[in-house]
Amino acid sequence: MRKRRLLIICLFFILFIFNTSIINASVPDTVLKQKDAVVTIIIYENDKPLVYGSGFIIDSNGIVATNYHVVSLLFEKQEASIAIKMANGEFIKAQKLLSINEEKDIALIQVESKGLPSARLAKDYKPKQGDEVFVIGSPYGLETTVSNGIISCIRG
Q: What is the largest CA-CA distance in the chain?
């Protein structure tokens, strides 16, 4: 289960890590350019943190992308609430879930803030088996970590 969750997180963040203008940059430069768009998502129940996950800002007008499994407790627990923490330590308030897709494990969240740092998304990138990837995320609450690996398989 842990490997599956890590694979989902890795595949999810490929969308913004690979951009043709970034591919030729060094990894530290890429991390510095993208990390401000990475957020930590915390799901609480009665002020007790239950789930930590990662997401990233895809639109400076306040749209955050994350995995459905990160926010799924919001549908299961009546007292659940969400907090979104930016890389600089500030919290931004979630307004509503814009879209969810349980099958593809994706959720989009509208937040109140505007003028946010957003990830540069690759428009024409098609992942290929064997491509090297770098992931910026906050797995298990470890904020703004960087990992690398390869795309081992393309599914679905």
A: 47
